[in-house]
Design a protein that fits this description.
- It is built from seven helices and nine strands.
- It has 313 residues and is α+β, with helices and mostly antiparallel strands.
- It has three domains: 93 residues, Alpha Horseshoe (Serine Threonine Protein Phosphatase 5, Tetratricopeptide repeat), CATH 1.25.40.10; 61 residues, no CATH class; 95 residues.
- Strands 3-2-5-6 form a four-stranded antiparallel sheet, with no helix packed on it.
- Helix 1 packs antiparallel against helix 2.
- It is rod-shaped, with a radius of gyration of 41 Å.
- The two termini are 78 Å apart.
- The N terminus and C terminus are likely disordered.
Length: 313
């Protein structure tokens, strides 16, 4: 059994690249003296290549040696080579095989610790896929406050597993998602034209316009009341001149009508002013919304008894 070379403590986490081992001369029968001699030579070559940091070539020699002499020590060497090439999952498999073949290993606790670390690295190497569907072209996308990496050819992102706070500006889109290994997550974009603080321009724009219409309706109502009271005032004034016996009663009614006309006119004017301000706010919000969202579309369609309006607003 060949001796185990010095174990290095570094842990490579680069993306794993695999290569098929070359066809070494293995005409000797495994386990025969010739095979053991060849395995020893291949092991020595692998150890030298490992020291030169030529880890893939070293792994090829160790694998060829293992095929001739299935020593558990070579499994350890294969695991170390896999670590250095960034193949975390391959390293885990070799370490587990090493412990299964050599359960009395003095470094068992250390190897088990490395297995746990490498399993965590392997999970990170197994990226998940995230697609943000329907996001406007040119929008700025961030993950956890950092600019999103470049998308791949299909428009998705390959991300390490974990939770991400996805933000899109302009548009005010914000959603927390979890990316899992080897899974594809599709997130529908639902931008609402907000200012990024949860106040959607579109919603409050239409609310403002609707409120302005309601206020205008109230102003019209009180304006009509003021006009009716004004008519009553003039009618009572004429009647007061024509019917002196009821002068006191008519004078009181006349004054009441005048007060009603003035108060209703004042309320109507206030409502008109407020309605104008609210309408201006609503129009401003809708203009801001139109700068980040697609323009509303509408179409006239025939309905029973008339025409209707349909589309997106």
């Amino acid at each position: 059994m060949p001796l185990m070379f010095r174990r290095l403590g570094s842990l490579a986490v680069a993306v794993a690249l695999t290569a098929a081992p070359p066809a070494f001369a293995q005409s000797a029968v495994p386990g025969s003296p010739e095979a053991l001699a060849e395995a020893k030579r291949l092991y020595a070559e692998g150890a030298a290549l490992f020291k030169e940091k030529r880890f893939r070539e070293a792994a090829e020699r160790f694998q060829a040696a293992y095929d001739l002499d299935p020593s558990p020590i070579l499994l350890y060497n294969l695991a170390r080579s896999a670590e250095e090439t960034g193949d975390a999952q391959g390293a885990v498999e070799h370490y587990q095989a090493y412990l299964a073949r050599y359960p009395q290993a003095e470094d068992r606790d250390e190897v088990q610790r490395r297995i746990r670390v490498l399993e965590a690295v392997s999970r990170q190497q197994r990226t998940g896929r995230l697609f943000l569907e329907g996001a406007p072209a040119g929008a700025t996308v961030t993950f956890n406050g950092a600019p999103a990496p470049s998308t791949e050819q299909d428009g998705g992102w390959a991300l390490p597993p974990g939770r991400y706070a996805v933000r899109v500006e302009p548009g005010g889109f914000a959603q927390d998602v979890e990316v899992r290994p080897d899974e594809t997550l599709r997130v529908p974009y639902a931008g609402d034209g907000s200012d990024g603080e949860g106040r959607p321009y579109r919603l409050w724009g239409w609310v403002s316009v609707g409120s302005a219409v309601a206020l205008a309706g109230g102003a019209v109502f009180f304006g009509l009341q003021a006009s009716a009271a004004e008519d009553d005032f003039h009618s009572l004034s004429r009647e007061l001149q024509e019917n002196p016996p009821n002068r006191l009663e008519l004078a009181e009614d006349k004054d009441a009508a005048q007060d009603d006309a003035r108060s209703n006119a004042l309320v109507a004017n206030i409502l008109w002013g407020v309605a104008g301000a609210v309408a201006a706010t609503g129009v401003t919000l809708l203009i801001l919304d139109s700068t980040s969202d697609p323009a509303p579309s509408a179409a006239i369609v025939p309905l029973p008894g008339g025409l209707g309006l349909t589309g997106s607003f």
